[in-house]
Amino acid sequence: MTTTVAATPIAEPEVHHKLRRRPPSGVRNGRALLQSVAGYAATGLFIISLAVLIGIKGAAAAWVPAAAVAIPLAAILIGVSRFTRTRTKVALALAIGVALLLALLIGYLIVTISAVIEEPNTIFFIQLGLSLPFVLAVVAAFQFSRAVSWFDGTVEHQLRPEDSGARPITAPLTVAAVSTPTALAAAAASTVTTPATISLPPVIEGGDAVAGPPPAPGTIVAPAVVTPLLAVQGLKKHFPIYGGVLRRQIGTVYAVDGVDFEIMPGETFSLVGESGCGKTTLGRTVIQLTPSTDGRVVFDGYELADVDPDDMRPLRRRMQIIFQDPFGSLNPRMPVSDLIGEGLLAQGLDDRKARDKRVEDALELVGLRREYSRRYPHEFSGGQRQRIGVARALALGPDFIVADEPVSALDVSIQSQVLNLLLDLKRDLNLTYMFISHNLSVVQYFSDRVGVMYLGKIVEIGTVEQLYQDPRHPYTVALLSAIPDADPRRRKKRLVLRGDVPSPAAPPSGCRFHTRCWLRERLGNPEICSTIEPELVTFAEEGHRVACHFAAEISQSTVSQAAAEAPAVAAAVAEGE
Amino acid sequence: MTQTSTVRPGLGEPPPDDILVDVRNLRTSFKVMDGTVPAVDGVSFSLGKGQTLGIVGESGSGKSVTALTIMRLLDIPPAEIGAGSEIWFDGREVLSMPEREMRHLRGNDMAMIFQEPLTSLNPVFTVGDQIAEQVQLHMKVKAKESRDRAIEMLRLVGIPSPERRAKQYPHELSGGMRQRVMIGMALSCEPKLLIADEPTTALDVTVQAQILELLKVIQQRTGAALLLITHDLGVVAEMVDNVIVMYAGQVVEQGTVNEVLIEPRMPYTMGLIESIPTVEKRGGRLSAISGVVPSPFHLPPACRFEPRCPYHWETCREVPPELYQAGPSGRLARCHLQLAEAAQRLDAAVAQHEQNMVVGRRLTGAPDRIGNA
User: Fold this and answer.
1) pTM of the entire structure?
2) Is this complex scored with an ipTM above 0.95?
3) Which A residues in the span 246-305 are in contact with B, Cβ-Cβ below 8 Å?
4) DSSP code string of A350-376
5) What's the whole-number average pLDDT of chain B?
6) Is the dihedral of CA B304, B305, B310, B312 positive or negative?
């Protein structure tokens, strides 16, 4: 299976433009800033206008329409600006806007009531788009003969068609008001904005998952070329370090620093590396749990960085994650039905019964009993908890699962149960895995292709056979050599690396591994290692890529020679460096 | 099942001189709200001077409690040590020793390395001070000397620029460095016995290799006996000469590393070894031990592994198995398969094990489901 995948030509990921595209971040930030500034300015305007209205009643006429525009606009602009963008806040802002508008209208009616009494057949209205249907309704309901716009406080318009020619009509609003019922309806309709929404198929309908966004028509790929389900290009994720009195940024953690790889449909791709090398961050960034700093992630034809946040939801259903710690990742206050059902609820499955059924189906899928859905996490063993974590990922019917160290917290006998389960599910549900682990034995057993990470970079990538039988990066060699083998007959000399992984906030120059590299030492510390960063280039076989200047120097004999000198390393450790 | 009493019956004879640790019929249980947990139930083993012994088992098998009982680090109560339990250390019985003497023994003659170095080190003292404190306490030397000793220990465990590192706090060190500090601290008083409880579980594989290498070199240099507690059969294979496999508080298999790991005679050990993913098993299923470790309140009446054992028969449910002789001297297995009348069953089990080791079970059939715990 692996070899066929590796041999097939890999197509450049094709990007569908079906989803609403997100403008570049500069524009986005600028727009958000503008929106909130405009919102606050409008609010200020409103407050000033209220003051004026109370102070000088006569001059208020000009301020009222401005204020009436300002309030809902302010509320809406603040609400939809990116800084306050959550559903609750938007709803709250809109509610405040509507409430203020109603208050203003009522206040306005009270102000004008004397005029109405003086001239019973006249209604005053403010010239405002939103209030037009209201005014028209009032006019129709109470049979007013005319309406007076208080736009300038003086102009008076006839509403009756027979009187329409009596006065010059200037404001377009009034034109609409005096026209035919069709025009009236059009005017009313124009006040309701129709947002340009995209039509994604409903995610969950009647308890059954519907497939996610269908492939865009016309993007059918030639069957001879395998299109990756996930393609990552130049992906970076940097975290700022804040410090000092002013909490300014004083540094950057280069957690993931330029990573390229593809995952084919139905494949298990593994990432290995020591802790701190960025593999977990990479996994989280790939499924957009944390936004990337730079680079592309194309999932099934969708450029994830460009997808509007609102459109991510149906895509998220297809990309799930299993977390490492089965104790920390389950909320102890939630029963299993809520733990697993939360994702379904977020995807819009509101029906409690249907949700519970889906939860129980997922539990059954991972080999737990249906009635366990009413229990709490503390009632389960570690292996069972990890099964719950798997069930939570599966409940939404994903295609792609990031499994972040799913078995490292488990005992060895339970570990094999969970590994078997993951393999069964992959086969039965046609899943694609991105498997993150530091355990090279598990990775070798479990995956089709492997990427070795060191300090935010992939240093070697290839099929399991290529990597384990013919490792070409000195780090991979050292990792493989460090695996303790349970078979005493295969006891071997180890190649022990010195020191720890350097800090990802200050990665070494040139090749990041050069500070710990045993090969560099054997070659007499060539300068190129510390000055030029090696590219990830194809080595020997198709699909086997290595980032090392001296990959050709590595062979069975160099490795065994280096390992034979291992006692020297051990002695050096004991003597102190 | 565990009888406890405050009155100690007469002690047995001390072991021969070349035996450093002799644990005899150790029973440690914990009184908790729901009843009594027999954490360690009749464990016996001995460890010669300068030798290495590994205790393997899953979480809850009682391996750490065994170590803590030897160190007498358990609070009594809730812990209780059963009547007839004896632990001989260097010719003296540990369990009946007054606490004052025990304090002298701990740290001086026996030292322990814990799994999680960050929680075992005091965060408010520098690592140098923490090592020096122990040296000062146990070796009765001046403060200056103890500080020099601390730096010397840090150098011994391969910490670069130990003078600077000694002035640092635990949070300033990496995981591997912290574990080195722990090892340095444990070795600072030149103990005769070093107990390492999962010393590398929290570490990365390359750092694990460093620490194991270090432990090996230091053990050989100082001639301390090493009691290594781990769940990782790979670590055991690399590090020790003899091994004990524990399950649900009992020793279920014992022998040299080669004997136990290459020719296991107890289905639990077989299952443990088979469940390790290896290159040979690629593309197949891992053979997993079905079910979970039994609850200590509801232990199976006879053989404790019987409900999960693929080879069990009636006897296993009726007669508790003893530690039967399963080969040359010191090779023991707690399984009825060793009985003469079960020879055929044993052959079948061994053949199945050999097969599982090579191919793994093919990836077919119903998914592996586990039932109720």
Assistant:
1) 0.70
2) no
3) 274-275
4) --HHHHHHHHHHHHHHTT--GGGGGS-
5) 81
6) negative
